[in-house]
Design goal:
Length: 214
């Protein structure tokens, strides 16, 4: 959700990260489009829900950090990718639906990438560790919260799923590794891998946070 100009507004990130970012945006857009279809929304509604799912977290982050222009305004390719993914999903989901496991893996990869990209942006701005964790988690998970609210569902991060928890753990690990002197690319990769690993492990083993019952 916005690696564009992660270090500065005049430089694009490495091609592999930029490509991965656009891919992650497309995956999140597909998940948003599928959620909109389940609610019976029309094609406009599908595109809107896909958009907020894909770029909502990065938008909230940029607004809170006063980063202008917001990443998708600076690079409209994000909107093109989202619209294409949403329309393609809307017109093909009846005939072909990707395997659930494939979407879960892709969603976990997107969560890891966006969480660490948000953390990197906050760290580059010189913010405190707790804000770095918050901004990273928000970048990865806030789009899903907006999607769930608009489609009248309880947000995923407020349920028992290990989702935001995985993001927090990944950013915390990244910060620890940086404090120990590890180079940023390595710490970024390990932190991202930790988010993905925890999310997929939680799905596989059906880990859930405890709930409070009256």
């Amino acid at each position: 959700m916005g690696l564009v100009d992660g270090h500065c507004r005049d430089a694009r990130p490495p091609l592999i990260l930029y490509t991965a970012d656009l891919t992650g945006v497309a995956v999140f857009a597909v998940s948003g489009a599928l959620a909109a279809e389940r609610k019976g929304l029309d094609i406009f509604g599908v595109i809107v829900i896909a958009s907020v799912t894909a770029i909502g977290g990065g938008t909230v982050r940029d607004l809170l950090l006063n980063r202008h222009p917001i990443f998708w305004i600076a690079d409209p390719r994000y909107l093109i990718v989202i619209a294409a993914a949403a329309v393609l999903t809307a017109f093909t989901s009846g005939a072909f639906r990707p395997p659930a496991n494939a979407l879960l893996v892709a969603d976990a990869l997107g969560l890891g990438l966006f969480t660490l990209s948000g953390a990197l942006i906050a760290e580059t701005a010189g913010l405190s560790p707790i804000i770095v964790v918050l901004m990273g988690t928000m970048t990865g998970a806030a789009g899903g919260v907006i999607r769930d609210l608009l489609t009248a569902d309880i947000p995923l991060i407020l349920r028992r799923d290990i989702y935001a928890t995985a993001a927090i753990a990944g950013v915390a690990l990244y910060l620890v590794l940086r404090a120990l002197g590890m180079k940023q690319p390595w710490a970024f990769g390990i932190g991202m891998a930790a988010v993905v690993f925890l999310r997929l492990l939680a799905i596989q083993l059906r880990w859930q946070l405890p709930t409070f019952n009256r």
